Amino acid sequence: MTYSLTLRRPDDWHLHLRDGAMLRAVLPETARHFGRSIIMPNLMPPVVTGDDARAYRDRILAALPDGMTFTPLMTLYLTEGTDPNDLASAHAAGLITAVKLYPAGATTNSASGVRDIGNVRAVLERMAEIGLPLCIHGEVTRHNVDIFDREKVFLDTVLDPLRRDIPQLKVTLEHVTTSDGIDYVREASGDIAATITTHHLMINRNHILVGGIKPHYYCLPVAKRATHQEALRKAAISGNPRFFLGTDSAPHTDPNKESACGCAGCFTATNTMACLAHVFEEEGALDKLEGFASLFGPARYGLAPNDTTITLVKEDTPVTYPAKIETEDGPVTVFDPGHPLFWRVLDQ
Length: 348
Ligand code: DOR
Ligand code: ZN
Prior knowledge:
The protein has one domain (4-345): TIM Barrel (Alpha-Beta Barrel), CATH 3.20.20. The chain is 34% helix and 15% strand.
């Protein structure tokens, strides 16, 4: 039997749109279903100043096809040279919603990121003062720390000390991948939340490595063992408003993914809502999807939920999603969870 679920239009609190031809190709995939997104600033060169954010926002709006509405919520890329005054005026002008901390070397285009958190202390204090949230890629990058431990070590050695040092700082731990991260965010006092991606709810490290390496499942932070995936699922369906959706949909062309040194990122924009409905249904928690995808994020950022809705329909037979989207830079593979999806978003 076909049945349906109507939700407030969702928002995506962590999205990579890139620029140029890639931006034009991927933006409609998100704007079709989502009202707003926090836009990641890791372009080459990164979005560092208020002027950069304004120019990038205008390029995004110019790339939006006629008839679609979408609000990009801009972020600045924190560097050790960030000027606190520039950041504060961009915030006061309503140009930016958050600032992104990439530890240098942690991921795609993070070379200009922060090497030593002590070097950005003045900026973080200013952010705490003016109530500007910090979105964090929570991994250490030291070579002697195993890649599967990098989030946990970050919590212990960077995040917790930072939050004790500047307790007023509003922090979002992005794309949390471990039960340690979930426990930390659930138990911590003060102003903290975490985003959870679609793909980390659907895959664990076995999906990447068993039966041959799957480059399209490789992302950062890398998916952990199944017990961590289970903890993420429980957090997502818990109804705790500290946990909400940030897809981290991160397009790379196939040649860049299917390579001897493949890029990190899963492109989930096209079928994210179908994947989430699948997961929440499996967990017997479809009634918790609206909070996770549409309500907790806006509340966290002091915004009203979207005033429009989307309707998800469950079909009797599998719904086909495109395997790839074409871009002028080359094809981008759409996330395939490895099993059929029965949900689709009704065209409105
Ligand atoms: O998998 C990822 N891809 N993780 C990130 O942190 C960055 C992103 C990208 O920009 O490709
Ligand atoms: Zn990201």
